[in-house]
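Appendix B. Chain record.
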Amino acid sequence: MSISISDYPIHLPNIFKFDREYLGKQESQNAEQKVFHRDTLEISQLSNNRENIMDRVKHTVTQSATAFSDTRAEILKEIREEKGQYDYSDIANACGLSYAKLYAEIEERYENGNEQYYKLDGTLLTKQDEIDWLDKEYENEVTWQKACAKVKSQREISLGHIPEIPIKEIEEFGKRFQQSKENYMKLYRENKQTGNPFVLQNYMYSNS
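Structure tokens predicted for this chain:
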């Protein structure tokens, strides 16, 4: 390799040619390494984002409007399959057990104080929020059962079996559901200490 300066040729050793080729290769390798590191970083970020999304989904609680009624219906289905039918005491027992079962699920979620749960809109959900929701669902169930009793009373009136809607008795009927809730919560707390499972009981709730 040679270059001319003022018409005098100067010969440069071929090592400079090799150096330029080497530098060119190094620049290419560096560029490839940058692309590799960038792609690795992007993949790592995507992996972290995916883990964060999956963790958020895992800790998102859906408060279904039918959660309580579905649980109660499943218990009554088992009672009907076993006994052939169910009465008011069975309904009250099923409602009390449903409340205790759902309450146990809530407590289990929050046993680890470091866990955080969220509503569907992404806002933070607390244990008290869930208990308030469950209490409201139980109140709705009691209101529904009282409405059913009123409809039955109206049918009895039309048949001439009773003269009027027994308002006082229907209110007492509603109180039995509150009593059932208290009974099953007491049973749940007792069995939680002993480690025994809590199951459907045969508590009797008189029917006027």
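Further analysis of this model is presented in Appendix C.
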